[in-house]
Amino acid sequence: MLEILHRIVQEVNAAPDLGEALNVIVKRVKQAIKTDVCSVYLTDFDRREHVLLATEGLRQDAVGKVSLPMHRGLVGLVCERAETVNLDDATEHPRYLAKHSTGETQYRGFLGVPIIQNRKVLGVLVVRQVESRKFDDNEVTFLFTLAAQLAGAITHARASGELNQLQPSRKPLNRYLSGQPASPGVGTGQAVVAYQLADLDAVPSRTTDNVEADVTAFKDAVSLTRQELENVKNRLSKELPVEELALFDALLLMLGSDTLVNQTVLRIEQGQWAQGALRDTIETHARMFDNMDDVYLRERASDIRNLGRRLLMHLQTEKPREMNFPEKTILVGDDISPVQLAEVPPERLAGIVSAKGSSSSHVSILARAMGAPAVMGVSELPVGRLEGLDIIIDGYRGRVYVSPDPSVTDEYARLAQEESEISSELEMMRGLKSETTDGVTVPLYLNTGLISDVMDMGMNEAEGVGLHRTELLYIVRDRFPGEEVQVESYQRMLTMFAPRPVILRTLDIGGDKPLPYFPFTESNPFLGWRGVRISLDHPEIFLTQIRAMIRANIGLNNLRIMLPMITKVSEVEELQMLIQRAHEELLEEGYKAELPPVGVMIEVPSAVYQIDEIARRVDFLSVGTNDLTQYLLAVDRNNPRVAAIFDDMHPVVLRALVQIVEGAATYQRPVSVCGELAGNPLAAVLLLGMGVDSLSMSAGSLLKIKWVIRSYSRARAKSLLQAALRMTDARQVRELMEKSLDEMGLGGLVRPGK
Ligand code: PEP
Ligand code: MG
């Protein structure tokens, strides 16, 4: 039996498509177990039925057409229980269906096993026998193993669209394609497929026949690309704030970097032709980012490849085709680049859908800044067949409807109407105080930097910057930034907000996001060399940054310094000594510099348990709920496989937050929250109930959170918090808060419509 199993698995693996794999399975299983029938049913949850997908022993013309109702019959029972059903005489079972269209009724022996992937039943694999027959253990495990094999194949076929071809007569029922919600909102319009840039992978290796001409051609391509980027950047400068435009600066910087230009030229000089040299340089550079665990940094690989394709296009002297953008354009593409997005006139952009990418892609950052809904990572997206089709995208839930039914269109038209009502209500929050109905003020601050969001709105609405991530300054370079470069960058931030306070966080790189020019690998990067651990081991890097921060603050005096990833008291003390040293040195050098307030991030459980000892030594505390959740729940914040377990509204996270607020109160130190939780309307009420002093979030959340704060009293928030703290899991807390926001008429802040 084992050998037969082995052979079938090999045959299934070698099958060119799912249809063939299914035929192999039903045929071979029928032979191996010597049964009368073997069939595979696919479960369709939308239509609530099980469709016959392949059979050996039943009528072939039933395949793809005949289906069994979801909760009836024995196949339905296997699916419901997600367990094997093995009956020697099926006709005696109460769930036995006496009659159905496949003509299976005269069979007594029945064995059905569920096909399961990621806890979800995808279908049922069934064998039947005319006579009574109890299938033995060997036969059960045999089927079990094949079902597991099938689960992977079905999932893959669903993603590639192949599954629909197997059931041509069954038009998908208002089916939508799923991806990652990357920018909230609902968008309706016509698909415009972003043109395919030249394909780097298709470039063959060849030797150059004229080094000089190839170098010149490459340099021309670089300057054409540079010009293009400059143009796009200029065009967008009216739409986007300086910080967002920095994305284009980063691309321009890459374009001018030694790595890209010199290495390509070197490769040409060594004999490769220009296109091959470019391909190799881009690939080497991009691969370095591919291997990083951090999603944000991994996305940089795609920026580099896009830049490479654009350069190649110019090398091949292809002209991008002229594009026509309808009034409501939904830009779709395999891997949309920021430049392609920027080519759509902003007033015509209704949404973005990309097969690749995630919510940390540059495109997503731009989409959020431009207020355009976006769904990324839609792996099933049939890009080539979408041009001109009607599309609806739901940026809250990550859904894309292609040529939707009128019922879906009507529903989303209604939601869009409600959305615009909500936007105008949100607009009314501008300029109002962030104050509860019983007079408690909760100042709202802005998160900027790595995923920066200094929109006009953020600039005017925020009380200052609660978290400026300084990593970007280091990431976009090919070496550590010097003191002067840093002074300039920090001065820009401090000046933009003065006299409002700006919290600059010291460098928080680590094992999971090494700098390209400072590489190291670790088996447990999140528990490794990260944040201040690197600062303490490399005081020269830390001191340069601190000197730059203190110098940038001269004459402005709105700087606060924040230390990330603090795990123990001695780290705080040692870093404070370094900060004092940098300050004293600057005084000695004649700078009239002030020593700024210094605070720490609380984002590691050990810091929570020592909270009063830490609070005593610093000026302020800010909770990084992203990392705190990761470390409390032992779940990697960037691993999609465990993404469903990562929930920052878990009661355990709430309890830790209460402990932090209480500990800080012992020494009257202010506590802020600057992780994603602070910008979540469901959670803001609970943070208010805890007595958190301020909240820091991305610009897109500011007005929403202000609306929430202005709708609740502190007393009500406290009683909701008490209820939440008694709960055992995050789902209950979410339900509690969703219900509460609904009651306050604020449900529209967390889903489409009102
Ligand atoms: C956090 O961990 O919650 C945080 C704000 O910092 P970062 O996301 O940059 O790690
Ligand atoms: Mg953190």
TrEMBL record:
PROSITE patterns: PEP_ENZYMES_2. Keywords: Cytoplasm, Kinase, Magnesium, Metal-binding, Phosphotransferase system, Pyruvate, Sugar transport, Transferase, Transport. It comes from Sedimenticola thiotaurini. Belongs to the PEP-utilizing enzyme family. This is phosphoenolpyruvate--protein phosphotransferase. SUPFAM superfamilies: Enzyme I of the PEP:sugar phosphotransferase system HPr-binding (sub)domain (SSF47831), GAF domain-like (SSF55781), Phosphoenolpyruvate/pyruvate domain (SSF51621), Phosphohistidine domain (SSF52009). One of its GO terms (molecular function) is kinase activity. Residues 17-164 form the GAF domain. GO terms for biological process: phosphoenolpyruvate-dependent sugar phosphotransferase system. The keyword Magnesium applies. It is found in: Cytoplasm.
